[in-house]
Amino acid sequence: MPTLAPRALLLALLAGTTLGTAARAQVGKPLPNADRDDAPAKPKPKPAQPAPVYPPGKYRVSITGFTVNHETEDDMLQRDGKGDEVYFSVQVLRTKADGTLDTYPLTSRLVESAVYGDRNGFPNRVAAGSRSDQGGLQTGDRVTLPSPIVLFEGALSGGLLVTPTIWEWDGQSLDDRRLELAWKDLMKVPGGRILNQFSPTGGPRSFGNYPTIRGAGYQELTVYPCPGCFLSEFTNTPACGIVCPDPLNVNRPIGINMSSGFRPTAVRIGTGNLESFLAGKNVGDFPIEYKDERKGGGDYTLTLRLERIP
């Protein structure tokens, strides 16, 4: 058996003493709280409180954004900016509790928005879209407006008739604006020719059996083609020489049909169908699509937001 040198033997004895002391020190030492049976239970996180559901009676109706399903056939030289440039023109008509039309300008009105698109060279526009670092709308863009376009806010004792439209912007000249001016003459409040289409009970004379558009399961609002909200300039080909002016190369609504003109969608909103649409929630989004037929190429979906407010 090998014999340890005196110095090595002394070091080994000291090491054993140190380890033994440390091991004895652990005997009887309480375990950490996490490993003890009698450790107090950790408090459970409180569940998130649901948002309060406001009582019926006061509402807000607004446009919060849009999707470019397909961009329009725009100016090839892009003189009006890169990609599409669009704006909203929305007629809001309110009926009183007795069903008659309220044409007071601050209650019923024609609402127009800023132009959204490429700001390069157009500083008054709101930048929107991905065509350039300054904006410009193209297929696939989903735009949330920096500020919603509020169409109505307050107590709803009667009803609303909302006719939202989205327009492609091409210029500021009178020729560029001829359809826009015709639209305003038709839809303005008071004095617009469309107001003659309404019966004494506040609804269009041909309201009749309007279709119901249903959204995802519970969503329901009444929607119908607005009678009288009709621009026919696209249905007639003017007599001209070799080159005819393009009826689409002006400020014009998206959703035209070269056979039947432009017939916008109107949404009738009352407390009954609005509460059915919200289905116990405070907020619901209702999509409205406008798609050009045969010519124009544009296909946009705007988002109409309906909210119950305190």
Draw up the topology in text:
Layout lengths: L5 H21 L31 E13 L15 E10 L5 E2 L6 E4 L3 E2 L8 E2 L14 E14 L3 E10 L9 H10 L24 E3 L5 E6 L26 E2 L11 E6 H8 L4 E9 L7 E10 L2
Parallel strand pairs: 5-6
Antiparallel strand pairs: 1-7, 1-14, 2-3, 2-4, 2-8, 8-11, 8-12, 9-10, 10-12, 13-14
Note poorly predicted spans. Answer: 200-222, 234-245
Order of helices and strands: HEEEEEEEEHEEEEHEE
Average of per-residue pLDDT values:
75
Q: End-to-end distance, in Å?
A: 94 Å
Number of strands: 14
Biggest β-sheet: count, sense, barrel? Answer: 8 strands, antiparallel
Tell me the number of structural domains.
1
The general outline is flat
Description:
The protein is α+β, with helices and mostly antiparallel strands and 310 residues long. The chain has one domain. 13% of the residues lie in helices and 30% in strands. It contains 3 helices and 14 strands. A hairpin with a 7-residue loop joins strand 13 and strand 14 (299-308). The chain is flat and about 105 Å long. 31% of the residues are buried. Mean pLDDT is 75; it is low at 200-222 and 234-245.
